[in-house]
Design goal:
Length: about 180
């Protein structure tokens, strides 16, 4: 059984927390995040000790499951508004490139047409060069979701390794049919 939900969440300096009913609002130097938690758990903030505690209303299975999840989500919000989250993608392939124009990410990854991905609000997407994409933001879920959507445009294939991959991702390579002789 996980006991992560019982651990208090330390709030760093420069982060403002406000709890209004079931809505938790956290504001920091990177941005502001709001989230409404489920009624099975209760969230309280102690301003003197600068920590947030999550408690469950009863001992049902659902309340136990949501206890640790709620604590983890609030912890991710605090890290997001104070430090931010970042995903880096590599574009590998001859003639493959990426660029940012306005609020769109343009990808040329071997299709007849250029792929245009709308950048969600609250994310900062940059291309330091044509073969790298950097996605930054305060919301961990948004950053990860957009990175996964960009990667899904052209996943790395196993024979030549061409496609969009996370930086440092190991792509399992296969030997071609010429290797069977």
């Amino acid at each position: 059984m996980s006991r992560i939900g019982f651990q208090p969440i330390a709030v760093p300096s420069g982060v403002k927390v406000s709890i209004d009913g079931r809505t938790v609002a956290i504001e920091g130097k990177v941005g502001r995040l709001d989230w409404e938690h489920r009624p099975e758990v209760a969230v309280s903030y102690d301003d003197d000790q600068k920590q947030i505690t999550v408690s469950r209303a009863n001992e049902t299975t659902m309340a136990k499951a949501l206890h640790g999840t709620t604590r983890a989500l609030i912890q991710n919000m605090i890290v997001g508004v104070s430090e931010g989250y970042e995903k880096r993608l590599e574009i590998v392939g001859v003639g493959y490139l990426g660029a940012v124009a306005g609020n769109e990410l343009q990808l040329r990854v071997g299709f007849a047409n250029e792929i245009h991905k709308q950048i969600p609000e609250g994310l900062n997407v940059t291309c330091p060069d044509q073969n790298h994409v950097v996605i930054k933001g305060a919301d961990k879920q948004k950053v990860g979701q957009f990175a996964a959507e960009v990667r899904a445009v052209r996943k790395p294939e196993p024979y030549k390794g061409k496609g969009v991959r996370y930086e440092g991702e190991q792509v399992r390579r296969k030997a071609g049919k010429a290797m069977t002789k």
